[in-house]
Amino acid sequence: MKVLGVSGSPVQNSNTDRALKIALEATCMKSEFIKLSDYTFGPCDACLGCIKTNKCIKKDDGVMLAEKTFKADALIIAGFTPYSSLDSRTKAYIERLYPLRHRNQLMAGKPGGAIVTSANPSRQEQMLSAAASSIDAIKHYMIDEGMNFLGGVSLLGNVPCVRCGQDGQCQMSGLKILYGKDATPESVGIFDFESDSAKVSELKKLGEAIGASFFK
Ligand SMILES: Cc1cc2nc3c(=O)[nH]c(=O)nc-3n(C[C@H](O)[C@H](O)[C@H](O)COP(=O)(O)O)c2cc1C
Q: Is residue 112 a part of any domain in this protein?
């Protein structure tokens, strides 16, 4: 049994990546970690060229990514939240899984989970938080494909401004929006989610639930 972990984060060894690896390890399954920024692919063109073959006709890495996803027995998708919605690589990857749907519903019954990091855990009035709406986007995909969605974990990630090199001079800094007008990259510092043990256990529980689902 193999679980595939797909990260939409382009940042090397990001919180998103490391969180996904913890959940993958907790499944106790054979696992593969994929970083979408290592590949070149676009979104689904809605051409329906995949209807009869369950294979996309585009000539890019999206075909291989869908093939790998089909071959996996379980799937964990991890994304982040630029401008408060699911990042576009993760969204494009999900769209490119459309070929696995037609006639055969090739992902049906497989267990899956979602992990989303966001820099701003709060929400605007009447709106879901960026993390909650992005977990929902992944959950919608899994439910629409008949998968067994076993949970979503949201985590704090780093605002890119923390490593921008402007020494707190930029008035547009996300750090000032989130942490107040005097905040600087130095005063805020790089956040490692591992310092939040409750989140680490949530991630492990998600992985364990996915692994355990094969023995029920
Ligand atoms: C272009 C851009 C816009 C962003 N906008 C938001 C945002 O609106 N809300 C938010 O919570 N985080 C925002 N972020 C922060 C990301 O969610 C954060 O980088 C993510 O949690 C990844 O963290 P990590 O690199 O520590 O894994 C943005 C990041 C980028 C690159």
A: yes
